[in-house]
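re: that chain from earlier
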Amino acid sequence: MNQVGKTVGLNLLALFAYLLAAVVYTRLTSKPDYAPGDYLGFATMAITAHVFACLGIGIFFYVKRNSPAGNGWILSMLAVLLIGFSACLGGASLAYGVQP
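^ sequence. v structure.
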C-alpha cells in the first residue's frame, strides 16, 4: 500500500476509535433524561482537533518538499472532515432522535 493510502487509513481508523469511545462513554455515563449534547460536544471537538492536526501536518510536509506525505495528510483531513461530521450528526440523529 502506498504512503497516501496508509495515512488515510490510519486516520480513518483513529476517527472510528474515538467516535466509538465517545458513544461508549456517553452511554455508560448517561442519565435517564439524557440529551445528546455530551456526545455531540465531544465528537465535534475531537473531529475539529483532528482536522486541524491533519492540516498542520500536511502543510509541514509540503514545506519540507515531501509531496506524497503532504497529499496523504490533506486527503486525510478532507476524509475526516466529511466522514467525521456526517457520522457525528447522523449517529446522534439515529441514536437520540436529534433533528438538525
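The chain has one domain: 3-27+35-96.
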